[in-house]
Specification:
The protein contains seven helices and six strands; from the N terminus they run H-H-E-H-H-E-E-E-E-H-E-H-H. The protein is of the alpha+beta class. The chain has two domains: about 90 residues, Arc Repressor Mutant, subunit A (Orthogonal Bundle); about 60 residues, Ferric-uptake regulator, C-terminal dimerisarion domain (Dna Ligase, domain 1). A hairpin with a 5-residue loop joins strand 2 and strand 3. Keywords: DNA-binding, Iron, Metal-binding, Repressor, Transcription, Transcription regulation, Zinc. InterPro entries: FUR (IPR002481), Fur_C (IPR043135), WH-like_DNA-bd_sf (IPR036388), WH_DNA-bd_sf (IPR036390). One of its GO terms (biological process) is regulation of secondary metabolite biosynthetic process.
């Protein structure tokens, strides 16, 4: 984690910003919860535990700065809440997400599934693509397994027995 923080500090300095204690606290929370896709409010509550003096506006400004500098991504999964995650170091493109409409789980696809589509769009439409986002909405494997293991309601069970 310390190496990543040092690289972020260097990135900030290269753009004439400092890694203030408030920014560092925000970065640490994001690093500690990398897989959670935290909202600004989530980040704020976790940062507040480390730095009680920090304000919500400071966390918002820090998240926007980190997003503007391409250190993190601001994501919208269609629920009206902006969420944040680190940009993978050295990655050319953003990764993809699977959103479960039942439990709200967010899973990630790390491989780039759209290379051929990007090439076709750039060629056919003379459009230089800088990045893309792909989000699939559906039912995750955990919810599907849970549904498969649920006993059928009595009416459905009777209907199933009649049809046999």
């Amino acid at each position: 984690m310390e190496d990543r923080i040092e690289r972020i500090k260097q990135h900030l300095h290269a753009h004439n910003y400092k890694l203030t204690p408030q920014r560092e606290a925000t970065v640490r929370v994001l690093l500690e919860h990398q897989d959670d896709h935290l909202s600004a409010e989530d980040v704020y509550l976790l940062v507040k535990e480390k730095a009680p003096e920090i304000g919500l506006a400071t966390v918002y400004r820090t998240l926007e700065l980190l997003n503007d500098l391409n250190i993190i991504h601001k994501l919208n999964f269609g629920d009206g809440v902006a969420r944040y995650e680190f940009r993978a170091e050295g990655a050319e493109r953003h990764h993809h997400h699977l959103i479960c409409v039942q439990c709200g789980a967010v899973d990630e696809i790390m491989e780039d599934l759209l290379k051929n589509v990007e090439h076709k769009v750039e060629k056919d439409f003379n459009f230089k693509i800088l990045d893309h986002r792909l989000i699939f909405h559906g039912i995750c494997h955990r919810c599907q397994e849970q549904e498969d293991n649920q006993p059928l309601p009595e009416a459905k069970q009777a209907e199933t027995n009649i049809n046999r």
